[in-house]
Amino acid sequence: MDTLSLQTFLTLAEHRNFTRTADALFIAQSTVTNRIAELEKEIGKPLFVRNKRKVTLTREGEQFLYYARKIIELSDSGIKTVNSLEKYTDTYRIGSTNTIYECHLFPVIKEYMYSHPEHSIKITIGHSNRLLQEIQDNLLDIVYSYLPFYHSGYLCEVFATDELVLVTNIDNRRYSNGIHQAELADADYLYCAFALQEVGLFIKELFPPHYQFGFEIDHGTKLIPYLLTSDGISFVPESIAAPYLEKKQLQCIRLLDFEAPKINCYRITRRR
Hints:
Layout: H1 3-15, H2 18-25, H3 29-43, E1 48-50, E2 55-57, H4 59-84, E3 90-96, H5 98-115, E4 119-125, H6 128-136, E5 142-145, E6 154-162, E7 164-169, E8 190-192, H7 197-205, E9 215-217, H8 220-228, E10 233-237, H9 238-246, E11 250-252, E12 263-270
Parallel strand pairs: 3-4, 3-5, 8-9
Antiparallel strand pairs: 1-2, 5-12, 6-12, 7-10, 7-11
Helix pairs in contact: 1-2, 1-3, 1-4, 2-3
């Protein structure tokens, strides 16, 4: 099972068309057909259903898609790591959520880069669930996540702790005296799924069951422009809000009858 066949499989799974796949890979359409046929012969199952109008994955093809991606990712990672040994003594593959990276991790990595020029650093920005899967697949060495990961063979420790603050535009006077929990459902709340488990559950439970937010975004730092240009309110980590609070562009809203939990950022590594 060679990587050329796997890459052809992945490209065909994306384009669902033999001609477009051939164009994307700069090869003849007959080469695409032959590679897929050889791969299906090796696996012993059809991976695609072909007809005149479209190409779709079979049930076996859907299952194989995940493993094909991982094989290609591991192969690429292995090649890069081996080649980097000529120039660097070590390579660290780091995964982090966007918010943790921008608020806590960037200055740490920057300082480390200058103090350890003999080390190579590869950074992946993604969501916690994906990053935790990738460290288990040996695609990452260190993960910075809002989700703890207490599994055998891994070390999970608190890397940083944030306060959770409710903020709004500095010109919004509606909540000058604070806010009660019951008022949140009638507020222009901008929802951000920057954290899961305890913190995510805390925010969801502040609202009625099955409450539908008018606005949702999945990166805390990307929420700020909306807060700056509207009367919306939202809970964010204090480390994100701090520069805008100092410049008096945002203001904190006092919580009158409830309290917000702290947010832990975790560092996960293998035990070795």
